[in-house]
TrEMBL record:
GO molecular function: alpha-L-fucosidase activity
InterPro entries cross-referenced by the UniProt entry: FUC_metazoa-typ (IPR016286), GH (IPR017853), Glyco_hydro_29 (IPR000933), Glyco_hydro_29_N (IPR057739), Glyco_hydro_b (IPR013780)
One Pfam family it belongs to: Alpha_L_fucos
Gene3D superfamilies: Glycosidases (3.20.20.80), Golgi alpha-mannosidase II (2.60.40.1180)
Species of origin: Mucilaginibacter lappiensis
Protein's recorded name: alpha-L-fucosidase
Catalytic activity, EC: 3.2.1.51
Record lineage: Bacteria, Pseudomonadati, Bacteroidota, Sphingobacteriia, Sphingobacteriales
Amino acid sequence: MMKKKAGLMMALVLSICAVFAQEVKTPKVVMDQFMDKRFGMFIHFGPVTQRGTEIGWSRNKEVAQADYDNLYHEFDPRLFNADTWVKTAKDAGMKYLTITAKHHDGFCLWPTAYSDYNISNSPFKRDIVGELAQACKKQGVTFCIYFTVLDWHDPDYPIHNPYDSTKNVKGDMTAFKTRMKNELKEVITKYKPFMLWFDGYWEKPWTKEDGKEIYQFIKSVDANVIVNNRLGKISEKLNEESVGDFLTPEQRIGEINMNEPWESCITICNQWAWKPNDQMKSLKQCIQTLVTTAAGNGNLLFNIGPAMDGHIEARQVKRLQEMGDWLKQYGESIYSTQGGPYAPNAIYGATRKGNKIYLHVFQRKDGMLTIPAIPGVKITKSYFMNGDAVTIKADKNNYQIGLPATLPDENCSVIVLVLDKNAQGIPVILTKA
Ligand code: FHN
């Protein structure tokens, strides 16, 4: 009897250890909340805006290191207004906001206790990260933080100049990771970000094991905070080799993926940080980028770069407002939807919710839009989301949708197909434009 009891006790101890040994992962319910948001604002900002060159990358390139590293002594973005930035995001229909709290140049936009190279030692002094967190809370926009893995300014990080390896030093990665953990604990506890957007995984001093260590550290501080896949060595899949909760295709729209959460990060202009007279995307490009991302079951993190004085260029504010106007009319077809079932192409993209498929028409090739029929499904009703009627003819293989000479919306028109069953379970249908 005693032997049996001892055996049971051992089994219980082993199963408890197995649970603790398992890596803590972000709960699916939290990831679902994130993916329902579909559209966020990315903000690249820092003292380098005084030069109008790229944040991090222009150090030791367009801007000499000594000049770059002293820009914070003149950094005084007097027109920075967190409420205005957050309202710009909200009016654009963006549900979350991600700020570069620390980019590769190592400058911290919050008054960290772990590095003097921070906003409190600039003429501006104010806590930009903290004020944005507060403004997001006040306006109901979800607050997120970008945090660099590499830091070319930190003496403990071995690489000080990505363009010249002779400038590398021995560094001390243990001390570097300790500082990183202290800073992360500081921003997580002070600002309660919903998501941490890591970046800079690619350099040699950083390993996948470092990424796993930091991911589990973050989970020990807040098990619910979402982490992207750039803490580890980036991978195109989420698996035991990768670290993090979602994929991050950059400056491109990800392929349709119904199994792994993903978010494309794309700039409204060309440069991530503010650049004078940078080329800005057209409204049609902006809207069709958002729609194609959602149609692929992904989120869009759309980047703006506020100018050195802290204002967002009027032309960027206007473009974002125009996106918000489109979303005011058609947001039902974007937020809290799933991508598909039709894989997006140059002519159309589809999202779905309940028994509805939202067919987003990007361009009118001719008076008839032909799409593959869905086996076992009946379309009980079809109409343009603005109310105009739609004629649809179904045969065994295709639906033929009659298009008016002028589509209701020049940027992206939306046709609703009401089905006789739930649309969520329909397998993805590959299409050709
Ligand atoms: O090096 C950064 C770059 O500056 C920018 O922050 C983008 C945004 O995703 N990420 C890195 C380039 O892949």
